[in-house]
Design brief:
This protein is an alpha+beta fold and about 400 residues long. It is built from four helices and twelve strands. The longest helix has about 130 residues, at about 1-130. The model is unreliable at about 1-20 (pLDDT under 50).
Protein backbone atom coordinates (compact mmCIF):
# COMPACT_ATOMS: atom_id res chain seq x y z
CA UNK A 1 0.00 0.00 0.00
CA UNK A 2 2.85 2.39 0.83
CA UNK A 3 4.44 1.67 -2.55
CA UNK A 4 1.26 2.76 -4.29
CA UNK A 5 0.93 5.94 -2.23
CA UNK A 6 4.51 7.07 -2.92
CA UNK A 7 4.17 7.26 -6.74
CA UNK A 8 0.90 9.16 -6.28
CA UNK A 9 2.54 11.68 -3.97
CA UNK A 10 5.42 12.10 -6.38
CA UNK A 11 3.00 12.63 -9.28
CA UNK A 12 1.05 15.26 -7.38
CA UNK A 13 4.30 16.94 -6.38
CA UNK A 14 5.48 17.12 -9.96
CA UNK A 15 2.10 18.45 -11.10
CA UNK A 16 2.17 21.05 -8.37
CA UNK A 17 5.70 22.09 -9.29
CA UNK A 18 4.58 22.50 -12.91
CA UNK A 19 1.42 24.42 -11.95
CA UNK A 20 3.27 26.98 -9.82
CA UNK A 21 5.36 28.34 -12.70
CA UNK A 22 2.21 28.54 -14.92
CA UNK A 23 0.34 30.42 -12.21
CA UNK A 24 3.33 32.72 -11.79
CA UNK A 25 3.40 33.27 -15.56
CA UNK A 26 -0.30 34.11 -15.62
CA UNK A 27 0.10 36.47 -12.69
CA UNK A 28 3.08 38.14 -14.33
CA UNK A 29 1.13 38.59 -17.58
CA UNK A 30 -1.93 40.06 -15.89
CA UNK A 31 0.29 42.37 -13.81
CA UNK A 32 1.88 43.70 -16.98
CA UNK A 33 -1.54 44.09 -18.60
CA UNK A 34 -2.84 45.86 -15.50
CA UNK A 35 0.12 48.25 -15.65
CA UNK A 36 -0.58 48.90 -19.31
CA UNK A 37 -4.25 49.44 -18.51
CA UNK A 38 -3.34 51.90 -15.79
CA UNK A 39 -1.09 53.77 -18.21
CA UNK A 40 -3.84 53.78 -20.83
CA UNK A 41 -6.36 55.12 -18.34
CA UNK A 42 -3.94 57.91 -17.48
CA UNK A 43 -3.49 58.74 -21.17
CA UNK A 44 -7.25 58.63 -21.67
CA UNK A 45 -7.74 60.99 -18.73
CA UNK A 46 -5.18 63.42 -20.17
CA UNK A 47 -6.79 63.22 -23.62
CA UNK A 48 -10.21 63.67 -22.06
CA UNK A 49 -9.00 66.75 -20.17
CA UNK A 50 -7.61 68.24 -23.38
CA UNK A 51 -10.90 67.52 -25.12
CA UNK A 52 -12.83 69.13 -22.26
CA UNK A 53 -10.55 72.19 -22.34
CA UNK A 54 -11.00 72.48 -26.11
CA UNK A 55 -14.76 72.13 -25.72
CA UNK A 56 -14.81 74.85 -23.05
CA UNK A 57 -12.88 77.14 -25.38
CA UNK A 58 -15.25 76.26 -28.25
CA UNK A 59 -18.23 77.14 -26.03
CA UNK A 60 -16.58 80.45 -25.14
CA UNK A 61 -15.87 81.21 -28.80
CA UNK A 62 -19.47 80.26 -29.68
CA UNK A 63 -20.71 82.67 -27.02
CA UNK A 64 -18.47 85.48 -28.25
CA UNK A 65 -19.44 84.75 -31.85
CA UNK A 66 -23.15 84.78 -31.00
CA UNK A 67 -22.75 88.11 -29.20
CA UNK A 68 -20.74 89.55 -32.08
CA UNK A 69 -23.43 88.38 -34.50
CA UNK A 70 -26.13 90.03 -32.38
CA UNK A 71 -24.07 93.24 -32.20
CA UNK A 72 -23.61 93.13 -35.95
CA UNK A 73 -27.34 92.71 -36.53
CA UNK A 74 -27.94 95.76 -34.34
CA UNK A 75 -25.36 97.71 -36.32
CA UNK A 76 -26.91 96.64 -39.61
CA UNK A 77 -30.28 97.88 -38.37
CA UNK A 78 -28.68 101.18 -37.39
CA UNK A 79 -27.01 101.44 -40.80
CA UNK A 80 -30.33 100.76 -42.51
CA UNK A 81 -32.03 103.37 -40.35
CA UNK A 82 -29.29 105.87 -41.15
CA UNK A 83 -29.67 105.07 -44.85
CA UNK A 84 -33.41 105.78 -44.65
CA UNK A 85 -32.66 109.06 -42.93
CA UNK A 86 -30.14 109.91 -45.63
CA UNK A 87 -32.72 109.16 -48.30
CA UNK A 88 -35.20 111.48 -46.60
CA UNK A 89 -32.54 114.17 -46.30
CA UNK A 90 -31.67 113.82 -49.97
CA UNK A 91 -35.34 114.23 -50.85
CA UNK A 92 -35.51 117.34 -48.67
CA UNK A 93 -32.40 118.72 -50.32
CA UNK A 94 -33.90 118.09 -53.76
CA UNK A 95 -37.13 119.82 -52.70
CA UNK A 96 -35.27 122.80 -51.27
CA UNK A 97 -33.13 123.04 -54.40
CA UNK A 98 -36.26 123.03 -56.57
CA UNK A 99 -37.79 125.71 -54.37
CA UNK A 100 -34.64 127.77 -54.67
CA UNK A 101 -34.74 127.53 -58.44
CA UNK A 102 -38.43 128.52 -58.53
CA UNK A 103 -37.83 131.36 -56.12
CA UNK A 104 -34.88 132.57 -58.14
CA UNK A 105 -37.02 132.52 -61.28
CA UNK A 106 -39.78 134.46 -59.54
CA UNK A 107 -37.22 136.90 -58.21
CA UNK A 108 -35.74 137.46 -61.65
CA UNK A 109 -39.22 138.07 -63.10
CA UNK A 110 -40.05 140.50 -60.31
CA UNK A 111 -36.78 142.35 -60.79
CA UNK A 112 -37.51 142.53 -64.53
CA UNK A 113 -40.93 144.02 -63.90
CA UNK A 114 -39.52 146.53 -61.44
CA UNK A 115 -36.77 147.55 -63.82
CA UNK A 116 -39.31 147.93 -66.64
CA UNK A 117 -41.52 150.11 -64.48
CA UNK A 118 -38.51 152.07 -63.28
CA UNK A 119 -37.56 152.81 -66.84
CA UNK A 120 -41.05 154.00 -67.61
CA UNK A 121 -41.18 156.22 -64.53
CA UNK A 122 -37.72 157.57 -65.13
CA UNK A 123 -38.68 158.46 -68.69
CA UNK A 124 -41.76 160.27 -67.45
CA UNK A 125 -39.84 162.11 -64.78
CA UNK A 126 -37.22 163.05 -67.27
CA UNK A 127 -39.93 164.39 -69.60
CA UNK A 128 -41.58 166.25 -66.73
CA UNK A 129 -38.26 167.72 -65.70
CA UNK A 130 -37.56 168.94 -69.22
CA UNK A 131 -41.06 170.35 -69.80
CA UNK A 132 -42.05 171.15 -66.24
CA UNK A 133 -45.75 171.18 -65.52
CA UNK A 134 -46.46 172.41 -69.04
CA UNK A 135 -46.86 168.88 -70.19
CA UNK A 136 -49.61 168.33 -67.66
CA UNK A 137 -51.07 171.73 -68.43
CA UNK A 138 -50.91 170.98 -72.12
CA UNK A 139 -52.76 167.81 -71.52
CA UNK A 140 -55.35 169.56 -69.42
CA UNK A 141 -55.69 172.77 -71.48
CA UNK A 142 -55.93 170.88 -74.70
CA UNK A 143 -59.27 169.57 -73.49
CA UNK A 144 -62.14 170.41 -75.82
CA UNK A 145 -64.70 170.58 -73.06
CA UNK A 146 -65.07 170.61 -69.33
CA UNK A 147 -66.02 166.98 -69.36
CA UNK A 148 -62.93 166.18 -71.42
CA UNK A 149 -60.92 168.22 -68.94
CA UNK A 150 -62.17 166.16 -65.99
CA UNK A 151 -61.54 162.94 -67.87
CA UNK A 152 -57.96 163.99 -68.61
CA UNK A 153 -57.39 164.88 -64.97
CA UNK A 154 -58.68 161.48 -63.85
CA UNK A 155 -56.60 159.71 -66.49
CA UNK A 156 -53.45 161.41 -65.27
CA UNK A 157 -54.25 160.49 -61.64
CA UNK A 158 -54.99 156.92 -62.69
CA UNK A 159 -51.69 156.63 -64.50
CA UNK A 160 -49.74 157.97 -61.56
CA UNK A 161 -51.62 155.80 -59.04
CA UNK A 162 -51.19 152.72 -61.20
CA UNK A 163 -47.47 153.32 -61.44
CA UNK A 164 -47.31 153.70 -57.68
CA UNK A 165 -49.32 150.50 -57.13
CA UNK A 166 -47.16 148.53 -59.55
CA UNK A 167 -44.01 149.88 -57.96
CA UNK A 168 -45.23 149.05 -54.47
CA UNK A 169 -46.36 145.59 -55.60
CA UNK A 170 -43.04 144.89 -57.25
CA UNK A 171 -41.20 146.15 -54.23
CA UNK A 172 -43.29 143.92 -51.98
CA UNK A 173 -42.78 140.92 -54.30
CA UNK A 174 -39.07 141.54 -54.26
CA UNK A 175 -38.98 141.70 -50.48
CA UNK A 176 -41.08 138.52 -50.15
CA UNK A 177 -38.97 136.57 -52.64
CA UNK A 178 -35.76 137.82 -51.05
CA UNK A 179 -37.02 136.80 -47.65
CA UNK A 180 -38.10 133.40 -48.96
CA UNK A 181 -34.72 132.92 -50.59
CA UNK A 182 -32.97 133.73 -47.35
CA UNK A 183 -35.18 131.34 -45.41
CA UNK A 184 -34.68 128.58 -47.98
CA UNK A 185 -30.93 129.09 -48.01
CA UNK A 186 -30.89 128.82 -44.22
CA UNK A 187 -32.95 125.64 -44.46
CA UNK A 188 -30.57 124.27 -47.06
CA UNK A 189 -27.60 124.96 -44.79
CA UNK A 190 -29.39 123.14 -41.99
CA UNK A 191 -30.30 120.16 -44.17
CA UNK A 192 -26.78 119.93 -45.54
CA UNK A 193 -25.45 119.89 -41.99
CA UNK A 194 -27.87 117.08 -41.11
CA UNK A 195 -26.77 115.24 -44.22
CA UNK A 196 -23.12 115.65 -43.23
CA UNK A 197 -23.85 114.42 -39.70
CA UNK A 198 -25.80 111.43 -40.99
CA UNK A 199 -23.09 110.64 -43.52
CA UNK A 200 -20.50 110.70 -40.74
CA UNK A 201 -22.73 108.39 -38.69
CA UNK A 202 -23.03 106.00 -41.60
CA UNK A 203 -19.25 105.96 -42.08
CA UNK A 204 -18.79 105.22 -38.37
CA UNK A 205 -21.37 102.44 -38.46
CA UNK A 206 -19.82 100.93 -41.57
CA UNK A 207 -16.43 100.94 -39.87
CA UNK A 208 -17.91 99.18 -36.85
CA UNK A 209 -19.70 96.70 -39.09
CA UNK A 210 -16.42 95.92 -40.85
CA UNK A 211 -14.71 95.46 -37.48
CA UNK A 212 -17.44 93.04 -36.43
CA UNK A 213 -17.07 91.07 -39.65
CA UNK A 214 -13.33 90.80 -39.02
CA UNK A 215 -13.98 89.67 -35.44
CA UNK A 216 -16.51 87.05 -36.51
CA UNK A 217 -14.10 85.77 -39.17
CA UNK A 218 -11.37 85.55 -36.54
CA UNK A 219 -13.66 83.74 -34.12
CA UNK A 220 -14.76 81.35 -36.87
CA UNK A 221 -11.13 80.54 -37.64
CA UNK A 222 -10.37 80.01 -33.96
CA UNK A 223 -13.48 77.84 -33.71
CA UNK A 224 -12.33 75.64 -36.60
CA UNK A 225 -8.87 75.23 -35.03
CA UNK A 226 -10.38 74.25 -31.68
CA UNK A 227 -12.82 71.84 -33.35
CA UNK A 228 -9.91 70.22 -35.17
CA UNK A 229 -8.05 69.88 -31.86
CA UNK A 230 -11.12 68.44 -30.16
CA UNK A 231 -11.76 66.06 -33.06
CA UNK A 232 -8.16 64.83 -32.92
CA UNK A 233 -8.52 64.28 -29.18
CA UNK A 234 -11.71 62.31 -29.75
CA UNK A 235 -9.91 60.10 -32.26
CA UNK A 236 -7.10 59.62 -29.74
CA UNK A 237 -9.63 58.75 -27.01
CA UNK A 238 -11.27 56.19 -29.31
CA UNK A 239 -7.89 54.67 -30.17
CA UNK A 240 -7.01 54.42 -26.48
CA UNK A 241 -10.39 52.81 -25.79
CA UNK A 242 -9.63 50.25 -28.52
CA UNK A 243 -6.24 49.51 -27.02
CA UNK A 244 -7.84 49.13 -23.61
CA UNK A 245 -10.41 46.71 -25.01
CA UNK A 246 -7.63 44.67 -26.62
CA UNK A 247 -5.72 44.54 -23.34
CA UNK A 248 -8.85 43.47 -21.48
CA UNK A 249 -9.22 40.65 -24.01
CA UNK A 250 -5.61 39.60 -23.44
CA UNK A 251 -6.18 39.70 -19.70
CA UNK A 252 -9.23 37.45 -20.00
CA UNK A 253 -7.22 35.06 -22.16
CA UNK A 254 -4.36 35.00 -19.64
CA UNK A 255 -6.71 34.30 -16.76
CA UNK A 256 -8.97 32.06 -18.82
CA UNK A 257 -11.91 34.30 -17.84
CA UNK A 258 -15.18 33.90 -19.71
CA UNK A 259 -15.63 36.34 -22.59
CA UNK A 260 -18.55 38.77 -22.19
CA UNK A 261 -19.14 38.70 -25.93
CA UNK A 262 -21.71 36.42 -27.45
CA UNK A 263 -22.68 38.35 -30.59
CA UNK A 264 -22.16 36.27 -33.72
CA UNK A 265 -24.36 38.20 -36.13
CA UNK A 266 -28.05 38.89 -36.51
CA UNK A 267 -30.37 41.56 -35.20
CA UNK A 268 -29.34 43.88 -32.38
CA UNK A 269 -31.68 44.87 -29.60
CA UNK A 270 -33.55 48.19 -29.89
CA UNK A 271 -31.54 50.81 -27.94
CA UNK A 272 -34.54 52.47 -26.25
CA UNK A 273 -37.18 51.25 -23.84
CA UNK A 274 -39.88 52.12 -26.42
CA UNK A 275 -40.04 52.65 -30.19
CA UNK A 276 -39.18 56.22 -31.12
CA UNK A 277 -39.44 58.29 -34.34
CA UNK A 278 -36.38 58.49 -36.59
CA UNK A 279 -35.53 62.22 -36.60
CA UNK A 280 -32.29 62.05 -38.61
CA UNK A 281 -30.96 59.24 -40.78
CA UNK A 282 -27.52 57.88 -41.66
CA UNK A 283 -27.01 60.42 -44.46
CA UNK A 284 -25.06 63.47 -45.56
CA UNK A 285 -26.72 66.51 -44.03
CA UNK A 286 -26.29 70.03 -42.68
CA UNK A 287 -25.49 69.96 -38.98
CA UNK A 288 -28.43 71.74 -37.28
CA UNK A 289 -26.09 73.30 -34.70
CA UNK A 290 -22.96 74.24 -36.65
CA UNK A 291 -24.67 74.76 -40.02
CA UNK A 292 -21.89 72.81 -41.74
CA UNK A 293 -22.17 69.87 -44.12
CA UNK A 294 -21.33 66.52 -42.53
CA UNK A 295 -21.81 62.78 -42.83
CA UNK A 296 -24.21 61.83 -40.05
CA UNK A 297 -22.52 58.78 -38.56
CA UNK A 298 -25.60 57.23 -36.98
CA UNK A 299 -29.33 57.67 -36.58
CA UNK A 300 -31.22 59.99 -34.23
CA UNK A 301 -34.21 58.65 -32.31
CA UNK A 302 -36.45 61.28 -30.74
CA UNK A 303 -37.39 60.53 -27.14
CA UNK A 304 -38.21 62.46 -23.93
CA UNK A 305 -35.41 63.36 -21.54
CA UNK A 306 -34.58 60.53 -19.16
CA UNK A 307 -35.92 57.74 -21.39
CA UNK A 308 -33.92 54.58 -20.66
CA UNK A 309 -31.15 53.79 -23.13
CA UNK A 310 -30.54 50.04 -23.42
CA UNK A 311 -27.47 48.08 -24.47
CA UNK A 312 -28.09 46.72 -27.97
CA UNK A 313 -26.11 43.54 -27.24
CA UNK A 314 -23.94 41.84 -24.61
CA UNK A 315 -20.57 43.50 -24.30
CA UNK A 316 -18.03 45.51 -22.34
CA UNK A 317 -18.13 49.28 -21.80
CA UNK A 318 -14.99 50.83 -23.29
CA UNK A 319 -15.99 54.50 -23.00
CA UNK A 320 -18.33 56.39 -20.68
CA UNK A 321 -17.72 60.14 -20.60
CA UNK A 322 -17.97 63.39 -22.57
CA UNK A 323 -16.92 63.38 -26.24
CA UNK A 324 -16.98 66.64 -28.21
CA UNK A 325 -20.15 66.89 -30.37
CA UNK A 326 -21.60 63.69 -28.88
CA UNK A 327 -21.88 65.23 -25.42
CA UNK A 328 -22.12 62.54 -22.76
CA UNK A 329 -21.39 59.28 -24.55
CA UNK A 330 -21.13 55.53 -23.97
CA UNK A 331 -19.39 53.04 -26.27
CA UNK A 332 -19.90 49.30 -25.85
CA UNK A 333 -17.62 46.68 -27.42
CA UNK A 334 -19.53 43.56 -28.50
CA UNK A 335 -16.58 41.63 -29.92
CA UNK A 336 -15.70 40.67 -33.49
CA UNK A 337 -15.03 44.35 -34.29
CA UNK A 338 -18.60 45.45 -33.48
CA UNK A 339 -19.18 48.56 -31.33
CA UNK A 340 -22.31 50.52 -30.51
CA UNK A 341 -22.22 54.19 -29.51
CA UNK A 342 -24.88 56.10 -27.58
CA UNK A 343 -24.66 59.92 -27.69
CA UNK A 344 -26.25 63.12 -26.23
CA UNK A 345 -26.92 61.37 -22.89
CA UNK A 346 -28.37 63.70 -20.25
CA UNK A 347 -26.14 65.10 -17.52
CA UNK A 348 -25.68 62.55 -14.72
CA UNK A 349 -27.34 60.09 -17.09
CA UNK A 350 -24.47 57.62 -17.62
CA UNK A 351 -25.23 54.58 -15.46
CA UNK A 352 -22.17 52.45 -16.34
CA UNK A 353 -18.40 52.85 -16.21
CA UNK A 354 -15.50 51.67 -18.31
CA UNK A 355 -14.87 47.95 -17.81
CA UNK A 356 -18.47 47.12 -16.87
CA UNK A 357 -19.92 44.03 -18.56
CA UNK A 358 -23.45 44.73 -19.77
CA UNK A 359 -26.18 42.47 -21.11
CA UNK A 360 -28.48 43.00 -24.04
CA UNK A 361 -31.43 45.17 -22.97
CA UNK A 362 -29.69 46.40 -19.80
CA UNK A 363 -30.23 50.06 -18.87
CA UNK A 364 -26.97 51.93 -19.42
CA UNK A 365 -27.97 55.62 -19.70
CA UNK A 366 -30.78 58.19 -20.04
CA UNK A 367 -31.76 60.24 -23.11
CA UNK A 368 -30.67 63.88 -23.09
CA UNK A 369 -29.54 66.74 -25.29
CA UNK A 370 -25.89 67.33 -24.41
CA UNK A 371 -23.22 68.25 -26.97
CA UNK A 372 -24.25 69.42 -30.44
CA UNK A 373 -27.95 68.82 -30.05
CA UNK A 374 -31.12 70.85 -30.59
CA UNK A 375 -33.44 68.64 -28.53
CA UNK A 376 -33.73 65.45 -26.52
CA UNK A 377 -32.89 62.37 -28.56
CA UNK A 378 -30.57 59.36 -28.74
CA UNK A 379 -27.78 59.37 -31.30
CA UNK A 380 -27.15 55.68 -32.00
CA UNK A 381 -24.15 54.39 -33.97
CA UNK A 382 -22.96 51.00 -35.07
CA UNK A 383 -19.26 50.73 -35.84
CA UNK A 384 -17.57 47.81 -37.59
CA UNK A 385 -13.81 47.82 -36.98
CA UNK A 386 -14.25 51.43 -35.78
CA UNK A 387 -15.92 52.53 -39.04
CA UNK A 388 -19.49 53.92 -38.67
CA UNK A 389 -22.08 51.95 -40.67
CA UNK A 390 -25.82 52.32 -41.15
CA UNK A 391 -27.47 51.02 -37.93
CA UNK A 392 -30.90 50.35 -39.49
CA UNK A 393 -30.08 46.93 -41.00
CA UNK A 394 -28.89 45.80 -37.55
CA UNK A 395 -32.22 46.77 -35.98
CA UNK A 396 -34.55 45.15 -38.55
Amino acid sequence: MKKKILPLVLTLGIAASLAVPFAGYAASTTDKIDQQLTQLKKQKAEAQQKSNDAQNQIDKVHSEKDQATKDMKTLVEQVNEASKKLTQLNEQIDQVSNNLEENAKQLDEAIGRVESRDQMLKSRLRLMYMNGFVSYMDVVLSATSFSDFLNRIEALKSIVNQDKVVLEANKKDKEVVAQKKEETEQQLVKVKKLYTDADALRSDLQAKEKAKEVKIASLSKQERVLEDISEENDKLITQLAKQEADLQAKKRAATKAKSPFTYAGGKLGYPLAAQAPLTSDFVSRINPVTGKAENHKGIDLGAPKGTNILAAENGSVIYASWMNGYGNCVIVDHGNGLWTLYGHIMNDGIYVKVGDVVKRGEKIAGVGSTGQSTGNHLHFEVRLNEVPTDPKPFLR
